[in-house]
Amino acid sequence: MNETIELMMKHRSVRKFKPDPISEEQLATIVAAGQMASSSSSVQAYSVIAVTDLTLKSKLAELAGNQAYVNECPVFLVWCADLFRLKDAAKQHMPDKEAYADSTENFMVATIDVALASQNAALAAESLGYGIVYIGGLRTRIEDVSELLGLPEGVYPVYGMCIGVADQETGIRPRLPLDAVLHQNQYNAEQTLEGMAQYDETTIAYMNERTQGANKTPWSVSMAKRLTEPARLQMKPFLEGKGFMKR
């Protein structure tokens, strides 16, 4: 265990923020740390939109499902998968060749790049004493979010991230047992299912304490419900319309 690992092990989502501002220098440092994440073939297929305008934040909070903490945080980052630069590079330097920016592989590369960079940035923010929470709710009305932010073809908002000084104390949500996640040399389905059963007991106790007995739902029940309810089925046609995943 070292300071970096200790910081990572203390991660929790923060949903209430103090009004303390984040300086431009600190914000630049946080995003620059994100840029140092690994990137496939150095394509760096992502962009970040820092939203501080109160009116714009309010509208994004509404589009994300009326999540108040988007309004409260001093800086709201919108992390976007971005193939716009790559398409322009191909147009400039190889105009006579067919470009494959619309391939499923390049969609995956861009989305993975966003995830790696944003998690680097989250860790950097937490090391500076800030709290963060990811906002996947931006995808619920993704067309409106994209229009509001002026995103061109080849760019889509993957999620948002609230950053600010935490104004709450929250517990650390337990994770799956390591044995359910870490496999040696080949996948062990039995080990995974045993770990899931153990995790159900852990989450029952956690939710019971967190909600003062109002909720004792096991993790597997929550996941079953999540998987059997349609959600954001507009994503595929939206992404295709933005020039992603056409082949």
Approximate strand percentage = 5-15%
**How many angstroms separate the termini?**
45 Å
What is the number of E strands? Answer: 4
Number of helices: 10
Provide the gyration radius in Å.
20 Å
In sequence order, what are the helices and strands, one letter per element? HHEHHEHHEHEHHH
Shape: globular
Report low-confidence residues grouped into runs of 5 or more.
none
Give the helix/strand class: alpha+beta
Average pLDDT, rounded to a whole number, is 95
| Helix content bin | 40-55%
Task: Profile the largest sheet.
Answer: 4 strands, antiparallel
Biggest sheet: strand arrangement: 1-2-4-3
Describe the protein's architecture and organization.
This protein has 247 residues and is of the alpha+beta class. The chain is built from 10 helices and 4 strands. The protein has helices spanning 3-9, 24-35, 54-63, 68-72, 84-93, 104-127, 142-149, 189-210, 219-227, 235-241, and strands at residues 46-51, 75-82, 131-135, 155-164. The chain has a 4-stranded antiparallel sheet, with helices on both faces. The termini are far apart. The relative contact order is 0.16.
